[in-house]
Amino acid sequence: MGIISRKIFPACGSMCVCCPALRSRSRQTVKRYIKLLADIFPKSPDELPNERKIIKLCEYAAKNPFRIPKIAKYLEERCYNELRSEDIKLVKIVAESFIKFLSICKVKITYFAVDVLNVISELLDYSKNETVQTLGCQSLTRFIYCQVNNTVQNIWLIAYVASS
Question: Taking the model in full, what pTM does it have?
Fold first, then answer.
């Protein structure tokens, strides 16, 4: 089998229809949003956030609305983790990403409204740093102004006031 390449025969030596070695590249799922999410965060602590990559992620989400809940859930979890580790710079990147989402995906706000409101609530409740609370206020203001209708805003404000 030294002459025949592994593209024709997989490493196991048998011809199986389900074998990933024989599957064409176009049939394998491409999760581009995972790479885009990784690109918005700087690789080193000194590096600035990449504004162009954030916009690229938001445009991708606008074209693929079924990916929006996964992207928003990832950003929400990342915000919780960064607040726990008190890395304010990365929290600002998450908040900036959500603000861009609100402006670019205005019509599809129902796909990620709950995640945005959870992040805003966490930012407003964070008492260790005033800049995080200010960021929460700015995000809430942007959320209110970017809505097409006021249904999500009214529900959240009632729930937030009731819990306080």
Answer: 0.71
